[in-house]
Design a protein that fits this description.
Length: 265
Amino acid sequence: MYCPATESASRNPGAASPTPKRSVDELTEDRKDLCIVVSRVPYQENDLVLGLLTRTGGLVSVVARSARSSRRRFQGVLDLFVAFDAGFSRGRGGLPVLTMAEPVRFFPGILENLDLLEVGQSMIQAVRDLLRDAPSSPALFDNVLLAFEYLEKAEPSLAHLVLLDLVLSISAELGQVPEDGVCPGCGRISTRFAVSTDGQVLCVEHCLPGPVPAIPFPEGCAARKPMSDNPASGPAPWQPDRERSMELVSALVSGITGFPGHAGR
């Protein structure tokens, strides 16, 4: 599965421009946001520092007090593959503090199959890496939840297609992949595309002529809207095999973020 070799490398200068992190003042206890956990780090004896993908504010970091010492405090809501409404208060000169977490939806089916769990973890890793300094939107958040839903119902042998489709949808949000067959580089309609070294999917005829190092993009993907249906519900003409899917995921994420990754075989 995709995983980055390092998280310390800088982003590709050609990637999407960063947006300001959500300020502490915006995360007040009278404000709620729909969230999922994308990272958990133990802090002091009893707390957790959580990386959250929020529906309206993108990625944020918050402190969950006593989340490690009290089973009643958040009652399993802060696990992976759980969508929840969160409330925040201002911390004492530091990170915002999570004051409440009410579950909205669980995706237990992902945890019941090791193949699905492996793909799900790769999905969360890709979301965290691609959106670290990039714009987000409610529609993108909804696509992440939709990907969890698709993954729960996926044939394990086709689960890699959900990961690929999610990465394609995020890449489309960042302007890195074609929409309706239109090349993001030159604006021309094409049917032959490849992933360039900076993570963009560009047309072969005009943007990537000659012997340029690039990974061919599967025919049919460029004309298909990512996350428009469950890609893992059954065979379809556009679907690449697992090895090609992982190669595409690795190339897209590595090119956009600027640090290398690899795909499991």
